[in-house]
Amino acid sequence: MTNIRIVTDSTADIPLALRQELNIEMVPLKIHFGDEEYLDTVTLQSEEFYPKLTSSPHFPRTSQPSPAEFLDLYQRLLEEPDTEVISIHLASVLSGTYQSALLASTMLEDSSGKVHVFDSCSASYGIGALAVAAARAAKEGQSVDEILELVRTMRENFYIYFLVDTLEFLQKGGRIGKASALFGSLLNIKPILSLDRAGEVAAIDKVRGHKKAVARILELLAADVSGKTIRSLHIAHANNLEGAEQLRAAIMQQFVVEHVDYITLGPVIGAHAGPGTIAAFVSTV
């Protein structure tokens, strides 16, 4: 039987205990404050990052892992007999992480075709949910083809909505235009954001006030999941547990949800989304 190992990157925001339980390997991105460099969720944790974000004179920068970092990991994993790797990563439109992993997979001299690099077309637990499902399927003895089909199906039946306190961080990180950042700062306008099918940040609606924004997310979710069961709901937040709880309660009041959990946005995702962000990651598969 093939031994299937799952690899992801730190932007998947999978809690450490769950990664360890499912034997998921993680390659960290890097985050920079001026000349200081940290490994995302390795040498800089969320509980240290958010205070640093507000106190540092430097705006954080992020960078992807090198192909060599992926190559080293793939080579180590493939030393195990009859092993194949499924490597699931941050949307290629948001980062070069996927390309680094893909390049590394082509550099394997004696293991051609044994590393399958998958573009999640997502971020944070949009990646994490796929990696976790893949690891569980691998434990159940599913084949590589079956697992890849599972994550493709999940990717097409996954819904993400998030609210940010300010568009400043997305704008400075180059993820949205300057005009949108200005508009979002006026008149208590709360942009409701999502990721499109490629993984690009997309503005879905603009609503005045937090309560109205949450109500609008419920309307959007109702259209998305009409006739479907919500298999899992993960509520993520950037140092805003109170806001996350309010969003969770609102969704749970209106929908039947089989599984719900909280996720903290890690430093790299938090550097782009900004403190105070809350998000709902919804899977119907």
Automatic annotation (TrEMBL):
This is DegV family protein. Pfam families: DegV (PF02645). Keywords: Lipid-binding. NCBIfam families: DegV (TIGR00762). The keyword Isomerase does not apply. It comes from the Bacteria. InterPro entries: DegV (IPR003797), DegV_C (IPR043168), DegV_domain_contain (IPR050270). It comes from Paenibacillus alginolyticus. Transmembrane segments: none annotated. The keyword Signal does not apply.
